[in-house]
């Protein structure tokens, strides 16, 4: 709807409902209490209409049409190529719309109906969300090339207690997972890290510059450490710290059978990666 037509449409709706929905001034427009209540009900109606359209689309042809796909930044660069090849090869009629956001924003988008399916780290502990497990992967310690721990393959987790550990900034689930590993290792919580970065590429460059060490998931190693000859890695002894990756959908969504089939196909494509597939 064009902007000039909107006030007339709102006025017509108010006349039909017999109540004022907005307060208008020369500077702004505010919802009345009735407007707030009806807006919430309208949102529920729109979500129901969306589910109806999804149901009709699923009946017509599974895994066709638009799929609004959310993915976290610490997964997107390393797994999206596999996802995109799968869609191209197996689901050519599926229009994938990719949204890279942090976990909290993705879950909000899923709950509001803005997104259909998420690729992210779990567990989520989010009500109304069903997880479709894909795989687990080890964390690896990334160090400067001449670091005393460089190249070791039997690290105990306890080494994390005293290292200059570099982490992502607040809001990234990978930061929280790394902190959980550090807590399990007995690291003091008061000073978990000396600095932080907005992305893994920056984080790795800080390590290459000698500012500390960091933890990377194994799927990120080839991309992130291959850019510099000043980096080395060290692996933890079993059981190594790990993270789990899954697809997530709204519980009871009309396309749940489609999404389960998509998860199964994606698991098969992920087997060549350094991960442990979860059924």
Automatic annotation (TrEMBL):
Keywords, alphabetical: Activator, DNA-binding, Transcription, Transcription regulation
CDD domains to which the protein is assigned, alphabetical: PBP2_OxyR
Database matches in InterPro entries: LysR_HTH_N, LysR_subst-bd, WH-like_DNA-bd_sf, WH_DNA-bd_sf
Keyword Transcription in record: yes
SUPFAM superfamilies attached to this UniProt entry: Periplasmic binding protein-like II, Winged helix' DNA-binding domain
GO MF annotation, one: DNA-binding transcription factor activity
Highest taxon of source: Bacteria
Cited PROSITE patterns: HTH_LYSR (PS50931)
Domain HTH lysR-type, chain residue ranges per copy: 1-32
A GO CC term attached to the entry: protein-DNA complex
Similarity section: Belongs to the LysR transcriptional regulatory family.
Name under which the protein is recorded: Probable hydrogen peroxide-inducible genes activator
UniProt source species: Wenjunlia tyrosinilytica
Lineage, top ranks: Bacteria, Bacillati, Actinomycetota, Actinomycetes, Kitasatosporales
């Amino acid at each position: 709807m064009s902007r000039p037509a909107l006030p007339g449409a709102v006025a017509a709706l108010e006349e039909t409902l017999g109540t004022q929905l907005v307060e208008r001034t020369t500077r702004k427009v505010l919802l009345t209490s009735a407007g707030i209540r009806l807006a919430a009900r309208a949102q529920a109606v729109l979500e129901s209409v969306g589910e109806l359209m999804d149901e009709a689309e699923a009946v017509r042809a599974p895994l066709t049409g638009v799929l609004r796909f959310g993915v976290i930044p610490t997964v997107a660069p390393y797994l999206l190529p596999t996802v995109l090849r799968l869609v191209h090869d197996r689901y050519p009629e599926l229009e994938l719309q990719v949204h890279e956001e942090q976990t909290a924003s993705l879950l909000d988008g899923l709950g509001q109906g803005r997104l259909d399916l998420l690729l992210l780290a779990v567990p989520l502990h989010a009500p109304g969300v069903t997880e479709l497990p894909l795989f687990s992967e080890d964390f690896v310690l990334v160090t400067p090339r001449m670091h005393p721990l460089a190249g070791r393959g039997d690290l105990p987790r306890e080494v994390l207690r005293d290292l200059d550990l570099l982490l992502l900034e607040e809001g990234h689930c990978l930061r929280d997972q790394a902190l959980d590993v550090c807590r399990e290792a007995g690291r003091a919580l008061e000073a978990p890290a000396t600095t932080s970065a907005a992305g893994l590429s920056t984080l790795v460059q800080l390590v290459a510059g000698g500012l500390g060490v960091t933890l990377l998931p194994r799927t990120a190693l080839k991309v992130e450490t291959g850019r510099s000859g000043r980096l080395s890695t060290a692996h933890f002894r079993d059981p190594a710290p790990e993270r789990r990756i899954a697809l997530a959908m709204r519980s009871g969504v009309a396309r749940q059978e489609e999404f389960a089939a998509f998860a199964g196909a994606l698991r098969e494509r992920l087997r060549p990666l350094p991960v442990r597939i979860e059924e």
